[in-house]
Amino acid sequence: MKTCLKRIVRALCISLLSWSAAVAGLVAFGTAKPPAAAAGISGPFSRIDTRGMPALLRYEARDGALLSYRKYPASGSQVAVLLHGSAGSSVDMHPLALALQQAGVTVFVPDLRGHGANRPHGDVAYVGQLDDDLADFITTKKPEYSDSTWTILGFSSGAAFGLRFAAESPAGQRADRYVLVSPYLRHDAPSVRQAGSSKPAAQSWASPSVGRIIGLTMLNHVGVHAWDGLPVLAFPVPEDVDSTTRAYSWRMQRNFAADDDYLADIRRVGRCVQVLVGGSDEILDPEKLKSEFKSQRPDIPVAIIPGMGHSDMVTRPDAILALVAAFK
Fold this sequence. Notes:
CATH topology: Rossmann fold
Strand order of the largest sheet: 1-2-4-3-5-6-10-11
Shape: globular
CATH architecture: 3-Layer(aba) Sandwich
Structural class: alpha/beta
Number of domains: 1
Strand content: 15-25%
Distance between the termini: 79 Å
CATH superfamily: Alpha/Beta hydrolase fold, catalytic domain
Number of helices: 10
CATH class: Alpha Beta
Number of strands: 11
C-alpha cells in the first residue's frame, strides 16, 4: 500500500514539474517581434493636423491615479466620450472630436490608462481596470451635463472595449447610446481579415507572443497572476512618436477588448447601438462584420462607408461626416 502511494505521489510530482517547466518555457521564450510597418493603418494618424487640439486635463480615478483627457466644449445638449484604438491616444481622435464640437456636441477624449500621457505604457493593474476608469470618468463629469444625452464612441479596439462596457450591468447604463466604429471584435472573429486575404490586402497591426499568452492563460487558470504584466502584444508604431504604445501586457490585451464570447456582448447590450465600418478596411471584412451583428441583433444598424480604410474612419472628412450625422 505504501509503495503504491509513493508511486502515485512520485507520478504527480513528475507531472507537476513537467507542467511547470512547459509553462515556464512558454512564458520565457514564447515571444514575437513586432510586425512590419502597416502604413495603411498608421499613416492617416501621422498626417493629423493638431491645430486647435486642447491641452490635456486630468481626472482622478478610484485608485488615486490622475489620468489624462481632452475636452472640446460646445453649447448643445449632447456629450460624446471618444475611445481611441489600440496603441493610440487622444491625439488620434482629434479630427473627429473637432468636427463633433463644431456640430454642437461636447466631446471628451480620454487617454486610456497605459496610453498617451498616462505612464507606464501598455499595462493596467488588473483586468477590468479600464472599465473602472471609464465608469469613474463618466461619474466625475456627468453632474456637469446631467440633462445631456451621453454617447460613447469607440474606434477599433476601443469599439470592442466599448461594446463590452455597454454589455456590462450596471456600467453600460451610464451612457445613453453607443457608436462602434470599425470594431475589432476578436483576433479569430470571422470579420477579421486573415493574412493573404485581398481586396484590399490584409495588413497586420499587432504581433502576438502566442506561446507566452498560452502560458500566462494557463497560470491564470490556477490563480497565478505574478507575471500578468509581461508584454504579449507588439505594435509597429513609429519610435519617434512619444504618445504611441509599443506593446501590451497580458492583462492589458485582455482588458482592452470585447469578451471572448463577443457575440454574447452583442446580445446583452441594453442601449441603442450603431456600427460604422469602412468599405475598404484593411483589417476587417465589412460584410462579415455586418453579418456578425445582424445574426445576434437585427435591430443594430451597420453602415458601410464606401472607399474608407480602417483608420480613415476617424481621420478622413467623408467618414467623419457620416459619424457626425449619427449624432443628428
